[in-house]
Amino acid sequence: MPVPPEIVARVEELRKLIHRYNYEYYVLDQPSVSDAEYDALMQELRQLEAQYPELITPDSPTQRVGAPPATGFQPVRHALPMLSLSNVFTEAELRNWAERVMRLLKASNLDFVTEPKVDGLAVSIIYENGVYTRGATRGDGFEGEDVTANIRTIKSVPLRLYPPPGVMLPRVLEVRGEVYMNVADFERLNEEIAKQNEQRAAAGQRPLPLFANPRNAAAGSLRQLDSRITASRPLRFAAWDIGVWEGTEPPRYHHEALDFLRQLGIPVVPDYTVHHSVDEVWQACMRWQERRASLPFEADGVVIKVDDRTVYDQLGVVGREPRWATAYKFPAIEKTTVIRGVEWSVGRTGKLTPVALLEPVEIGGAVIERATLHNEDEIARLGVMIGDAVVVQRRGDVIPKITAVILARRDGDEQPITPPEHCPVCGAQAVRLEGEADRYCVNPNCPARLKASIQHFASRNAMDIEGLGEKVAELFVDLGLIQSLPDIYYLDWNRIRQLEGFGAKRVENLQRAIERSKERPLARFLYALGIRHVGERNARILAEQFVSIDRIERATLEELLTLPGFGPTVAQAIVTFFQEPRNREMIERFRAAGVRMSEERGEETRTRQGPLVGKTVVLTGRLQSMTRSQAEEALRLAGATVTSSVSRNTDYVFAGEDPGSKYQRAQQLGVPILDEEALLQLLRESGIDIPQETAIS
């Protein structure tokens, strides 16, 4: 029997009303109805949906309660990368950034938008035809995690968009912003956890950990496999940009994009403002800095963006940072405390790092008890001793660091910091290598090195093994379950199931994560191995150039030195690593476990024929036919290695309009400089399709 039209109309009316009242309550903080009136509307909607279940839709406000626990977060590839921001810390740095932008655009002045840098977790939210369809974390900027069910529970995020009259919705709208928690809500959450812990203690149960700060609380709440837990947390959302936009013409200006989102009832960052000069921008940064302590949320700076979005492609991206935006970071928060001792931690390479043990001090909402001293040279530079009163700083509100010693407070009882002659973990000799500032444990089987190596191997940008974190790594090493890295793939699961805290679901999730990691690209496996001086960039270049682990093993020092950015130190470290029999044996055990040992994309480019195969190229200037990222992708498909700096090993520099210092560097070194037409011709000869509408006639 069809649903009566009046019921359908009433359900739609209730949803619109509840959407409006949610916006007033959670975004504007100006409710126009009482809690009782709101609850009555929600109850009426629930009753109608129970009576007519065919009317229940995913965008209904009754569907925010959360779903049963998921088995894990699925990866989500962002259609457009979610980029990081460069930082400026002074007025001079801000002016240099703005002048560089205007110089690239040949503009005498620009409009900028400022907005507070809300300290939370960046996410992407997709609406299709006005209905919420997907939510994902930023992740590494290119790939995040699917948290659709969790974001659905955030009451300030509309599940359906109701545009005002005359406003057209794009078919696909990607909203980017921050999931965060207000300070007052964070404090109440910790109070609730503390009360639960009293009950748990009385029942003989382990206490739940308190959150360190609102950002950690927001991130931890959003990344719950059980979205019902997320639904119980006081999370909020503030949009700060748009991403994918399909179906209508996107706004030309950034402030118009935020205006549009606000019209749709989407919460946006507060008090965003357009400025017509750098002077105005700096004054706004100072005003936000003065307001910082009184804000209801935590903010660690001010984001500055060029208002005109049409110049974004022209300005391009450096690394993972757009040229058209930057962040002024508030000055580091400093406090004074006392050093009570020094520990020497052992990293995955065996490096010993001195860590100062501090009299606990609260800085920016976090209790700081430890701060790095980096190495022996830094200890000498500071002249620091055990017992000293010191200044501790959290630059950018993140990393605790000792910046100064208060000599006037010395009383003569201070003790010098003596570097250890033996590893504090395994007792092996600790040596300082000639020409280096660091001291190393010489034992490759040191348990501390292994624990740190496992954490690095399992980290998100390496093999991304969810559930194999610091505590689990320490436990498995201490129990002898992991005695070398490949043991990760040969774990005794029967024994693990007998461990306290390892129930069937946790074991199943960890097994699945380890199995999935076998298919990670070669570049991530190389990075995960922890070869000295081989970070993510160098690992990617090795994978693209040599295609397989076997070919890298055979690479000579001379071959490695031809790679962009590979000097003698890096090249020798790679050769030394693969010459070590224990490392080759380790790789064979990985191979036997089924870990991927070749780059599929590399296989394609290796067989490609064309003038760009094996060439090292650099792009500079503004291209007319395509964006910088499109050109880099086309060149890689053609078999070239694209680098960011010009050296004697560079084969070509492709120069568009207004080339920068790379152009002059190429002239100095005698590197061939080709124009955009030559670039397109070489791509055609390499078999790369150039879209007709972008090709230069």
How would you explain this protein's 3D organization?
The protein has 697 residues and is α+β, with helices and mostly antiparallel strands. The protein folds into six domains: 5-64, Helix Hairpins; 86-329, 2-Layer Sandwich (D-amino Acid Aminotransferase, Chain A, domain 1); 334-439, Nucleic acid-binding proteins (OB fold (Dihydrolipoamide Acetyltransferase, E2P)); 447-517, 5' to 3' exonuclease, C-terminal subdomain (DNA polymerase, domain 1); 522-604, Orthogonal Bundle (DNA polymerase, domain 1); 611-685, 3-Layer(aba) Sandwich (Rossmann fold), CATH 3.40.50.10190. Strand 19 (430-432) and strand 20 (439-441) form a beta hairpin. Helix 1 (5-28) packs antiparallel against helix 2.
User: Per the principal axes of the C-alpha atoms, what is the gross shape?
Assistant: globular
CATH superfamily of the largest domain: DNA ligase/mRNA capping enzyme
Rg calc: 28 Å
CATH class of the largest domain equals: Alpha Beta
Mean pLDDT: 87
**Number of E-type strands:** 24
Tally the structural domains: 6
Task: State the CATH architecture of the largest domain.
Answer: 2-Layer Sandwich
Number of DSSP helices? 25
Low-confidence stretches: 601-607, 692-697
Describe the biggest sheet?
7 strands, antiparallel
Question: Helicity level, as a percent range?
Answer: 25-40%
Content of β-strand: 15-25%
